[in-house]
What we know:
The chain has helices at residues 8-14, 21-28, 39-51, 55-68, 76-91, 98-109, 119-122, and strands at 4-6, 35-38, 70-72, 113-115, 129-131. The chain is α/β, with parallel strands linked by helices. The protein is globular.
Amino acid sequence: MIRYCFDTDVVSTMLKPHPPLSLVRRVAGIPPGEQCTTSITVGELLYGAARLDRERLVEKVRTIIDYAQQVLPFDRAAAEIYGALRAQLEAKGRRLAEPDLRIAAIALRHDLTLVTGNVRHFARVPNLRVENWLEVPAGS
């Protein structure tokens, strides 16, 4: 049963040469079957690596995604949530960036907790559970 969906900033932090130990420990404490990311995040990561023209980084992205996580698609059920959510947020003047809105719709569709450093952005989304694992715990 999947419980956590990792946003782009969390996965990209894990790809760094020296990711924060607190994040590594937290991710390692979650069974792989409870972890996922989205096809939107994979696309953003591959775009970033390709834009930098770093083939090794592209391969590293592919490897970490293949090894560690299930990738959830933006399917019809997520699209239904996306459409209603986008209209709701725009009506309130609280727009969300397109990729973030699609990631939120996927997380809502699967009833997942979204793990992200962008809590402020995602806090606009009703009923979306959000946790920030990039914050350094007090006393660390």
